[in-house]
UniProtKB/TrEMBL annotation, chains A, B, C, D:
<dbReference type="Pfam" id="PF03860">
    <property type="entry name" value="Csp"/>
</dbReference>
<protein>
    <submittedName>
        <fullName>Four-helix bundle copper-binding protein</fullName>
    </submittedName>
</protein>
<dbReference type="InterPro" id="IPR005560">
    <property type="entry name" value="Csp_YhjQ"/>
</dbReference>
<dbReference type="InterPro" id="IPR044543">
    <property type="entry name" value="YHJQ-like"/>
</dbReference>
Length: 109, 109, 109, 109
């Protein structure tokens, strides 16, 4: 397995990582930051795992499936938290990316 | 400036990082690895800088433009080296991604 | 130049990245998260740049000095912000790591 | 659990990541690069996982233990490969760092 077999999952992970960073940074500019603290924490964890998953897949690592399993778990938690913040575009975009990434990572794992 | 203003450049950087990892890993499986050593070295450096650039842009950092300048430089060097290996699909794909990323990063910087 | 010539700077960057992550996560648990939002934002940017600098130095990259210059700048800003939060151990630890990293990166650059 | 409880493991992971990068880059300069190709591949995978583990630990993530388990596995494989190259200082340093990191990550997991 290498880049081309994993490409859809790599793309989903990288897009999710970028939208998690964007969401974290945008949450910090909201009026009520306190209510976004769980979201920001999960965004940071999710971005780290999504990028590591994309790296191992693009390197064709034998551990790619195992990290996709961990990645799916954090994406599900981050997506669930983000989806609660219905008025915030950055959270809704991040939730959609997390859910898509979780599904593709589950299939991969 | 945030994710949406930078999106094209973020996408180019993340795609380039993934194709650099793929190229490095694929080069290691070529018959004449020795002749690929510069390519592998530049792939590793380019992947690191492309990802850092994508991170700072998606975080809306004030240093996004400065790192895009460094990123453009390594993409140009990596793309030039990869483009020399005309028989290898992974190098040609990586060269194309590096050149596209270099152009967009130059515009951004 | 490679790992051994850069070792002190690599160690300072990696320590700073870890303490920035710790500071960001700890700030999110403070009672007044709003007042920590700039600190969290700079922690995320600083962690990203410190790690990229450590990567390029440990790879012996020709761009190591240039990224150390960027890294010194964000470390100075992050350290200045963290040092304002005198009652918080995580901020004081992060401020000390940022200042040390900034100094070593300046020397390197 | 946060940075201070994990500190020994974070330090081992970050040191291992840096020495893997150094080993990969140094292997590429050896006369017989072909014989180092497995080593370089594992160095790249190990560096990616070690850094992700350090990130999740320093963020106090609930998935820190799970990624330490994956990290221990790749460190064991990378350390075993590096230890075979007895004449190369970079491989011996990397092997020692991998073995130490694997042990601490096993304890953590």
């Amino acid at each position: 397995m290498g880049y081309h077999q994993y490409q859809q999952c790599i793309d989903a992970c990288l897009r999710c990582a970028a939208l998690c960073n964007h969401c974290a940074s945008s949450c910090l500019q909201e009026a009520d930051v306190k209510s976004m603290s769980t979201c920001i924490q999960l965004d940071m964890e999710c971005a780290a795992l999504c990028y590591a998953a994309a790296q191992l897949m693009s390197l064709g690592s034998g551990q790619a499936r195992a990290i996709c399993k961990l990645c799916a778990e954090i994406c599900e938690r981050c997506g669930a938290e983000c989806s609660r913040h219905k008025d915030m575009q950055h959270c809704q975009e991040c939730a959609a990316a997390c859910k898509q990434c979780a599904e593709i990572c589950r299939t991969m794992a």
